[in-house]
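REQUEST ID: PR-0412
SUBMITTED BY: lab tech R.K.
PRIORITY: routine
TASK: structure prediction, single protein chain
INPUT:
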Amino acid sequence: MSPEALDRLLAGGVVSHLQPVVDLARGNIAGYEALARFPGGPGPFEVFAAARTYGRGVELEAATLGAALAARREMPPNTFLSVNIGPDVIDAPAVQAVWDSHRSLAGVVIELTEQVRIESYAALDPVLSDLRSRGAMIAVDDAGAGYAGLQHLLALRPHFIKLDRELVAGLDRDEAKRALVEVLGSFAGRVDAWVIAEGVETAAELDVLVDLRVPLAQGYLLGRPAPGIQSLDPDLALSIAGRATTRSGSTLRTLLELAPAIGRDTVHGLRGRLGIGEIAVVVDGHGRPERTVDAEGRTHAVRESGLRINLDTSIVDAAQRAIVRAPATRFQPLICTDTAGRYVGIVRVERLIDALSRAH
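STATUS: complete
OUTPUT:
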């Protein structure tokens, strides 16, 4: 592509198409990924490569991010919007101006692309911490594609781990791929992250993902990128929900109980208001749990101690996660969240044990 052709494309503007991300436990749309498109031009890979070649990569990334975030106005309730950004430009002034034009980034998933190698995770941490504090969640792309992807997972501790589409392709015919997906799913559970399978194109691949309890997926089978919000095919939605119900058995929803949710500024006034064995859950400004507080004022950080779990997790999986926690927190209640990571209630380990014994 010539510099003149690139100029014409940038002058014409970037268009965002949205691809649905589907909840494989409930058979509905959990969010959308915004993907750049260039009307009348070549594919996005060629355009981004040309922009980097001619020194206009930051300009294009900022324009793409602005177009993607504009789609927030269309988002249905309780869905997230995933946007892509290169780690090398995430804090560039032009990109920072786009972030700053949005007071809150609640419901936004920032997906770090792997087009450019991350040279220093320490240098990246301040900007990611700032974006997290404004409500954004972090995703790492192409997990399972190589050592760089594993390095991302260990250093960044993302909210979402996106499986490389080459790992998903033919998953139903490859036991090695299936084993790797299981390992990544186990790792995600230990670090309190969600797995998203990309590139799902066949019903057989979808069956295996549901069987492995991968929570989220996207791909041509579930919906192609398109302008504006789209719905999931009703027959497909029923089929997914039926598969999940058959394979997962009872979930934490059946054991859920409420514990009070409090803001950060009310923790000190809590003493004396909780009974023995009771806890309160401290949530941030977006309703996501941060830590628990008991009657004696002792706190447990939710993320570090592995207390947080999705309410659609099966009882068996939840019990397996609970018993591998550190001894100090092994019998602490599980803090349950919805698809968007918001606090919805707690499940006590005693009730998990009782449910397992009754099932047996």
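NOTES: Residues 175-190 form the longest helix (16 residues).
REVIEWED BY: pending
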